């Protein structure tokens, strides 16, 4: 996680329709991070997550997204079931800040989003993992 937080944005920023390159072609695995926020984006229905290196609710965060695309259906369902086991409902109408951070593992591609308002005040980089698969650690 600290590595992702240290990545600087490209200058100039890539065009929104630019093909992936560099880090965006690499698969990253984070064995343990802390899930702080989980919600479904109204615009594209992707699952939008915020993770941090430590369970502190004010720690710097990275956005992780799991797309609505059919190949991610199983991963989305598993994450929703795992969150439900911890008393947290993630659906089109429910989600948000978790009362207590949950340890998770994440696997996904690097993605440089463009600078815009997104996520909580604790999101500390425009770099994301997207698409990504997230599992709640036992």
CATH architecture identity: Beta Barrel
Straight-line distance between termini: 20 Å
Oligomeric grouping of the chains: single chain
Strand count, sense and barrel status of the largest sheet are: 5 strands, mixed, barrel
Secondary structural class:
mainly beta
Shape: globular
Instruction: Provide the succession of SSEs.
Output: HEEEHEE
Find the CATH topology: OB fold (Dihydrolipoamide Acetyltransferase, E2P)
Q: Number of DSSP strands?
A: 5
* CATH class category label: Mainly Beta
Query: What fraction strand?
Result: 35-45%
Portion of residues in helices?
A: 10-25%
Q: What would the keywords be for this entry?
A:
five-stranded mixed β-barrel; 138 residues; OB fold (Dihydrolipoamide Acetyltransferase, E2P); mainly beta
């Amino acid at each position: 996680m600290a590595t992702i937080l240290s990545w600087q944005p490209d200058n100039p920023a890539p065009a929104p329709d630019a093909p992936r390159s560099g880090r965006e072609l690499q698969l990253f695995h984070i064995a343990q991070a802390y899930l702080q926020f989980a919600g479904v984006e109204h615009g594209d229905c992707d699952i939008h997550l915020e993770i941090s290196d430590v369970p502190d609710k004010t720690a710097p965060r990275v956005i992780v997204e799991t797309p609505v695309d059919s190949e991610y259906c199983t991963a989305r369902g598993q994450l929703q079931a795992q969150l439900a086991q911890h008393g947290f409902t993630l659906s089109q109408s429910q989600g948000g800040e978790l009362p207590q951070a949950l340890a998770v593992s994440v696997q996904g591609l690097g993605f440089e989003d463009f600078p815009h308002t997104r996520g909580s005040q604790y999101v500390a980089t425009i770099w994301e993992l997207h698409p990504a698969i997230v599992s709640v650690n036992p």
